[in-house]
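fyi for ur records
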Amino acid sequence: MLDILNILSDQGGCQSGGCSSGGCGSSDALWSEGSSACGCSGGGPADLVAEDGAQLRRDFLKNASSIVLGSVTLTLLPGSLGAADKAAGATAASGDSEPLYGFLVDTDKCIGAGKCLTACREENNVPEGQARTWVERYIHFKDGNIQVDLVPEVGYTGEEPEIDPETVDKAYFVPKLCNHCADAPCNQVCPTHASITAPGGVELVDPDLCIGCAYCVQACPYGVRFINHETGNADKCTWCYHRITQDQTPACVEACPTGARLFGRLDDPNSEISQKIRSLPNSVLKEHLGTHPKLHYIGLNGEVV
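which gave:
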């Protein structure tokens, strides 16, 4: 690296002072025996050093890249790539493919037990009164009215106000969590780039960069982000990223007593989630927005938003 820096800054020049251009790279020691001094008159090792140095400099700069940001031009030199870029290059060279994760909810299987809610809170230290995931209960009455309420974290205990079953046309539960959109609006509005897409297509928040401005909270069309009362940072479902990167399932998936929640790799055609998405009718929330969620639903009713 020192040689490269010397070439770029022309620091390999004549040290004897006999050259008016100062670019031959010679030294008194180099010319101490059988030499007619430097002079840059050609024919000596100095010319070879100068020629080789100039060629190396041209080859080095040839591989540089320039980026124009308004009136500022940034030049990226070879060797300035970060660890993430080197790791990505190594992955590409080795042929290993980065996983693409997805989530599937079967509303026909959800019974509103609330086990998933408790598991999420305990696993991710979510403050009381806030939630990374929740379950909505939809009740369609025969008179055309629709009632939507939140399932208690402990599930229904029988102490809730009674509903006359004769007045009900149908009822179902819908778990909600981050959709981890391929085109996430929350990432686009973050002024500090704290909202990021991690390997696997998982949307995360960098707590060291987050300033708690809540721009991402407002931008999320699914209402899944919030400002954590304890940390002051934007918070959300991460699909338990710390677990899935260790080949474990999200806590809510593990806790669900009916298998209503399924997590897996979308890039693997043989995975259970890929096979179900291919073979069973499914949909995503607010498809018209073009955010391309990686959270899919089976049996999603049209009234669910």
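Residues 127 and 230 are 7 Å apart (CA to CA). thats all i got for now
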